[in-house]
Structure formats: C-alpha cells, structure tokens
C-alpha cells in the first residue's frame, strides 16, 4: 500500500476528493482544511479515493490528532524540499480490528540515520526553530497516541523520493483502559 510516483498528481484536484467513503465528520473536516492549507502553502494534497473510514468512533479524536500532525509535517517537508511539484498523499483503510493511516510526501525524506526512534523523541526537529519552542512535538504525539492505543507507527522512504508514515490504530481499546496506573 505504499504510495509511489505512479499515484495521481495531487495538483490535479480542486478540493478534498477521495473523502466520499470517509463517514467521520471530524476526519472529513480535517482533510478539507488541510487540503486548502496545503494548496495555500504551494503543495497539492490528494486523499486516495480508495480510502474508507466509518463514522465517529472511539478513535475519532486520535485519528484527527495523528493525521493532523502527519499531514502538517508532510506539507512542510514537500514545500521545503520537493522542487516545483510539492505533493502530499493520504490513504486510510479500516478493517474489523484496526484503522490504517498512511501519509506520504515527496520532500527530501528523513535522513537514514534519523529514521530510528530519534525522530519520535519530544523536542526533536529537523526544521529550523522558528515560531516558538513548540517545535518537535508532532511525531512524539503521534507515537504517544499510537503506543497508548497499542498500535504501531513506522517511517519509510517513499518510492520516488520523500517519506511515508504508516500508523495502525487498533479498534476497541479505549485510551482510558490502556493508561498505566
């Protein structure tokens, strides 16, 4: 399910296409907002039209938080390092027991020596520290939510250049039940 250079051009869309089978209004709103924000920043964003997500669930807020952080990073990475056609691709798949989220960009990618857990450490950033001390929290938040839910997050090089983050969030496990005493 890796996104490649053969995927559709994210610049060919006017709006957040691919959301027809996403029934969760929080996720729909996030994707609509980020599609507009990506375009304003100079990047195209495409939601894979095979994406499927049911209506609101116990995962809704976590999905929005994870996607928001990953998409924000992907837009920044694409704009800063993709050349003339910065792009972001989002894909979601739901099974009976989990939700799978993939966010890819065609930026410079994560340097191989940084692909370990280092990029998921609080305060770690590859970006210049402009705009305040709150840089370097997004991927740490993604990992924290994913671990709390008993899921998995991974990062890989995108075929054709850039990065793909994959997150699997198990269903049926509330965050409250997973918090350690």
Provide structural commentary.
By secondary structure, the protein is of the alpha+beta class. 30% of the residues lie in helices and 19% in strands. The protein contains four helices and five strands. It has a five-stranded mixed β-sheet with strand order 1-2-3-5-4. Helix 1 runs parallel beside helix 2. It is globular and about 40 Å long.
What secondary-structure arrangement, pairings included, does this model have?
Elements: H1 25-41, E1 44-47, H2 60-81, E2 87-94, E3 98-105, H3 138-148, E4 152-157, E5 163-170, H4 175-178
Parallel strand pairs: 1-2
Antiparallel strand pairs: 2-3, 3-5, 4-5
Helix pairs in contact: 1-2, 2-3
CA gyration radius, whole angstroms: 16 Å
The ordered H/E elements are HEHEEHEEH
- In terms of DSSP E residues, the strand content is 15-25%
Helix- and strand-based class?
alpha+beta
Mean residue pLDDT = 81
Instruction: Based on Cα principal axes, name the global outline.
Output: globular
- The stretches of 5 or more residues where confidence is low (pLDDT under 50) are 1-6
Largest sheet: 5 strands, mixed
List how many beta strands DSSP finds: 5
Number of H/I helices: 4
Q: Could you list some keywords that capture this structure?
A:
181 residues; single chain; 5-stranded mixed β-sheet; 4 helices
Brief overview:
It contains 4 helices and 5 strands; from the N terminus they run H-E-H-E-E-H-E-E-H.
């Amino acid at each position: 399910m890796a996104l490649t250079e053969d995927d559709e051009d994210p610049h060919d869309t006017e709006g957040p296409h691919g959301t027809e089978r996403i029934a969760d209004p929080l996720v729909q709103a996030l994707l609509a907002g980020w599609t507009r924000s990506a375009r304003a920043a100079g990047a195209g964003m495409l939601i894979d039209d095979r994406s499927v997500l049911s209506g609101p669930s116990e995962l809704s807020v976590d999905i929005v938080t994870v996607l928001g952080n990953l998409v924000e990073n992907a837009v920044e990475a694409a704009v800063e390092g993709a050349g003339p056609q910065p792009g972001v691709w989002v894909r979601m798949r739901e099974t009976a027991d989990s939700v799978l989220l993939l966010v890819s960009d065609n930026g410079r990618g994560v340097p191989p020596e940084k692909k370990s857990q280092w990029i998921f450490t609080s305060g770690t950033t590859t970006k210049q520290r402009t705009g305040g001390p709150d840089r370097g929290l997004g991927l740490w938040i993604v990992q924290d939510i994913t671990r709390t839910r008993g899921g998995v997050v991974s990062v890989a090089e995108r075929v054709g250049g850039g990065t793909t983050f994959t997150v699997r969030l198990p269903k049926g496990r509330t965050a409250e039940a997973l918090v350690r005493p």
